[in-house]
Amino acid sequence: MKEKEKTNWLLTILLSVIAVFVILGPLYITVVIALKSPSDMEHILALPTSLHFENFSMAWKLTDYPRKFLNTFFITSINLVFTILTNSMAAYAIIRNKDKSRFFNLMYYYFISAMFIPFNVIMLPLVKQASAFHLDNIYGITLIYIIFGLPMNTFLYSGYIKSLPVALEEAAKIDGADTFQTFWSIIFPLLKPMSATVAILSFMWTWNDFLMPLVLLSDASQQTLQLAQYVFKGQFSTQYNLAFASYLMVLLPVLAVYVFCQKWIIAGVTSGSVKA
Amino acid sequence: MNKHRNNHISPAFYLMVVPVAALFFLLHTVPFLKGIFYSFTNWKGYGSWEFIGFKNFLQFFKDPSIKQAYGFTFQFALSATVLVNVLSLALACGLNGKIRGKNLLKALYFLPYMLGTLIIGFVFNFIFGNIIPGFGKTAGIPGLSVNILGTSKAWLGVLFVTVWQSMAFNTMIYLSGLQTVDKDIYDAASVDGAVGLQRFIKITFPLIAPFFTINMVLSVKSFLMAFDQIMAMTGGGPGTATTTISMLIYKRGFDGGQFAYQSANAVILFLVVASISVFQLKILEKREAKVN
């Protein structure tokens, strides 16, 4: 028994060393370069001789960071709220009725089979469609994110909703609650763990997405943070310090969220896929 | 509860589904069907067009850029899937061992999942372009003293970055699988003399097979779609050496006047990805069922 409790120090050290060099190494390089001046680049990996925070303010101005941040924040937060509300509701209606109604059964298979259609496959005609409907802006792309989440989220919610006893809803119905009230006051609170997973996945998708903004948001005033990094690649050119300061400002919000919620995020992401 | 009430479906349920389903149809299904429609035309993305039947699809067999893109994408997806899954499984076994600071290490190894692929690509661009060649020159290793992304081995650089980032997710899935394995099974196995690699192959792996299925299906699908990291690192080059199918659709479909032709390419990509996913699910589930 005693032997079982013993820590494997060799393994601990090995995993720590790999983590420091392979995972934190590139991040260290990002931070160090973001803080250096171009004349300080001879020993690239060395700590900066003096800290150049003006890299950040210059990148802030050059890429119009506040605008891009607000665009990204708008898309991410509105998508998160409305995805959870509308997708959970749709999944609930579908799962509760798919065994007694052909229509809801059809809806179930409609959404599930749409999971096999990757975004890249529909992007060409989608762009034509979006510009015809004037959806090629941050409002339009937000709507598209919310709607495109349906297949995956119906799938994620379905197993969870199936496990909730129908008796709860029947009791609410007898008390005079209508279907919306029942959903809102009984079902929605019970879906919280799965909603957390959906929220994390939606957040990660929209904050880090590059392809959809690339094809839909051409106007500079509509661009997201990720897209701006690509657009400014040419302007940064060999001004690495400026470029890395800019990258770091895009990574920081996510890193901050991760530091405080990492346990929750890892659990959410893995439980979502394992259930799926 | 009588039968009548059970079969009656409140209109509210329709209200919960119909509006979002209608929008989904309009924004997802219609473009999908339009893409299939365009694939039988010669539309450039502007101007007039006419039906040309299967000409676009027949043209594929003669088109070197299509051959190149499919060849590279498959080579890349296969290599990345194998590497990511082998390394993730090894890492997950390590993290599942009797180690200290397990939660901190888990958090560190999951970190790449959180970071945008485009920016990771830019950062590694710099590492491959400015740090490794400097190191290679000082150490006198000719293979390392040039920017790998400018050579015929550019794809290895892209592969490295993809593996670096994708391992985060796959490792956590394997780890959650390993945590479901009952420790008592190992005690029973060691009594029977199964240890080390043998124990892993005969006992652990079959027990985590469902997690292997998830990882295989998700990996292959996402690697066949590779786009962000390649746009960031090589732009598809040198030449067209690292151009993936998705990049070809994007580049030629929007700017190259090949809207219809690349729509046909997208239809083929869809058929390939969907059939591989279905095939994988069938095969892997069958094997799982046999094991259980």
Automatic annotation (TrEMBL), chain A:
Intracellular or extracellular location(s): Cell membrane
UniProt membrane topology term: Multi-pass membrane protein
Major localisation: membrane
Gene3D superfamilies: MetI-like
One Pfam family linked to the record: BPD_transp_1
Keyword field: Cell membrane, Membrane, Transmembrane, Transmembrane helix, Transport
SUPFAM superfamilies associated with the record: MetI-like
Highest taxon listed in the record's lineage: Bacteria
Family matches, as CDD domains: TM_PBP2
Residues in ABC transmembrane type-1 domain copies: 69-261
Entry's transmembrane regions: 9-35, 73-95, 107-126, 138-161, 182-207, 242-261
Any one GO BP annotation for this protein: transmembrane transport
Family from the record: Belongs to the binding-protein-dependent transport system permease family.
UniProt name for this protein: ABC transporter permease
Biological source species: Lacrimispora celerecrescens
Lineage: Bacteria, Bacillati, Bacillota, Clostridia, Lachnospirales
